[in-house]
Amino acid sequence: MGEVCKEKNSESWLSVIWRICNLFMSVFFALATYVQINDPDAGLWMVGYGVPSVLCASIGLNPHVTETLPWRRIADLHVMISSAVVAILGWRLCKERITDILQEEEGRSPVGMLRVSTATAITVFPFVAWLYYYINTELRTNWPSHCKTAI
């Protein structure tokens, strides 16, 4: 008596997908940390990629860790330091009046990330489109019969 809701024992499929995505992102950040070995300022970049890797792995293994104070403080500190680095780089570009940002190391990195993101989007789009039409059966109602049997 007095209970507002009953706690479910089984996890929802969205929770499972969220955990899997965090584990994949953890692996991505871990690999990004590893490839920084050859960089002249590897320590800085390894910490920058390593912290999100650990944070994502902890969410993937235990999603309720985000409710703990240490996890939140580490995440907030990382966001604060990353924002400060972006502000410092922006100030340096403004102060030194750099007009061609792609000639700087910091400018080439986001362009490379844009290329990788575009390639990933092109690769993933057919699978996402197929899944979207497969889940939403009402979109397939007006298709010809030979298209309905293809899926």
UniProtKB/TrEMBL annotation:
Keyword Cytoplasm: no
Transmembrane segments: 16-37, 43-62, 74-93, 113-135
Cross-referenced Pfam families: TMEM220
Record has Transmembrane as a keyword: yes
Keyword line: Membrane, Transmembrane, Transmembrane helix
Name of the protein: Transmembrane protein 220
Originating organism: Dissostichus eleginoides (Patagonian toothfish)
